[in-house]
Specification:
With 363 residues, the chain is mainly alpha-helical. It has 17 helices and five strands. Bound molecules: adenosine-5'-triphosphate and magnesium ion.
């Protein structure tokens, strides 16, 4: 069976360092590993509209921002197909059939959807499209026969839902769809990077992000304002590392060589944590260190992004158009197989007419 990846992002804003450690960085590694037969990266504009129906301009404008972030991080259109969800209408059609295989109560139990409904203050006015987006995600994954879906841990319930739909479909209509597997980052912190405010998840919708496109000055300002330990007031006070966003980010981003380079008084992150716990280590010092670490990682991305934005916008739009055309062809093939399995391929080789003739001959 071919090894195929599908993954993507909602164009609701620029991508942030949570996306980077949670998914993007891994995608680039997988792309370069040569182990995959096909990689599809989807800009999920239709999904973004499920909770931004009144703001299509936002979704529209962010398509190019997300594409720039992808290319700046090293995704290579020669190796991956980058496409826009709404340009593949087959995905919507698949969703319509999958809807019959999922119950309302099953959707209501989805922990991610539950949490996102709370986050967005929908209360009782939940758009049906938003409520059913796990089904649409199953369509996105199965349309490309994806075996592997690299995501942050908030997406695990979505992949589980997709797997259930695949099993249900195959049981009901015969083997047609491929069951996908989620791949989440090994480093637990990278599975769900908290926001600069210390809240559970860095998220575009919460405004607690460090964006890949942020300038060196913005990066520094955000780090200097980051949430640490609220009880660590004087330098001499003992501090807490757990739940302290600066240390969480150091867990996600710092490597042993960063200490030799930027903070030679400490040989490792453990030594730094130990000093912080004991007292005598100020927040500014650890923030400066984090700034150096992040700047080293983000500066090349930022520079590539600026160069792409200045000189290659036209080519990027053309790349997205072509990617959407080739993704559409693949999805159309899967949809044809799905309809054949469901016996709604009435006019394929005159199927229904032939059956009618056969029935008549038997009578
Ligand atoms: P929105 O607030 O619009 O939902 P988002 O910031 O949650 O935006 P998505 O486009 O929903 O971003 O997520 C895209 C991918 O990035 C998913 O695989 C998701 O798991 C991953 N991801 C998003 N935020 C984080 C984070 N803070 N840490 C790790 N992975 C993340
Ligand atoms: Mg999200």
């Amino acid at each position: 069976m071919p090894k195929i990846i599908l993954t993507g992002d909602r164009p609701t804003g620029r991508l942030h360092v949570g996306h980077y450690v949670g998914s993007l960085k891994r995608r680039v590694e997988l792309q370069n590993s040569g182990e995959y037969d096909k990689i599809f990266i989807m800009i999920a504009d239709a999904q973004a509209l499920t909770d931004n129906a009144d703001n299509p301009a936002k979704v529209r404008q962010n398509i190019i921002e997300v594409a720039l972030d992808y290319l700046a991080c090293g995704l290579d259109p020669e190796k991956v197909t980058i496409f826009i969800q709404s340009q593949v209408p087959e995905l919507t059609e698949l969703s319509f059939y999958y809807m019959n295989l999922v119950t309302v109560s099953r959707l209501q139990r989805n922990p991610t959807v539950k949490n996102e409904i709370l986050m967005r203050n929908f209360e009782t006015s939940i758009p049906v499209g938003f409520f059913t987006y796990p089904i649409s995600q199953a369509s996105d994954i199965t349309a490309f026969k994806a075996t592997t879906v690299p995501v942050g841990d908030d997406q695990l319930p979505m992949i589980e839902q997709a797997r259930e739909i695949v099993r249900r479909f195959n049981q009901t209509y015969g083997d047609t769809l491929v069951e996908p597997e989620a791949v989440i980052p090994e480093n637990e912190i990278c599975q769900r990077l908290p926001g600069t405010d210390g809240k559970a998840k860095m998220s575009k919708s919460l405004g607690n992000c460090i964006y890949l496109a942020d300038s060196a000055e913005e990066l520094k300002r955000k780090i200097m304002n980051m949430y640490t330990d609220p009880n660590h007031i004087k330098v001499t006070d003992p501090g807490t590392v757990e739940g302290n966003a600066v240390f969480t980010y150091l867990d996600a981003f710092s490597r042993p060589e960063h200490f030799a380079k930027y903070l030679p008084d400490y040989e490792s992150l453990d030594a730094l944590k130990e000093h912080y716990r004991r007292g005598g280590l100020g927040d500014v010092k650890i923030k400066r260190f984090l700034n150096a670490v992040l700047e080293e990682e983000l500066a090349p991305i930022r520079e590539r992004r600026q160069e792409l934005e200045a000189n290659h916008i036209e080519e990027i739009y053309e790349m997205l158009r072509q990617g959407s055309v080739s993704a559409q062809k693949v999805a159309a093939q899967t949809l044809a197989e799905v309809k054949r399995s469901m016996k709604i391929n009435y006019f394929e080789d005159g199927a229904l007419m032939k059956e009618h003739a056969e029935r008549n001959a038997q009578e």
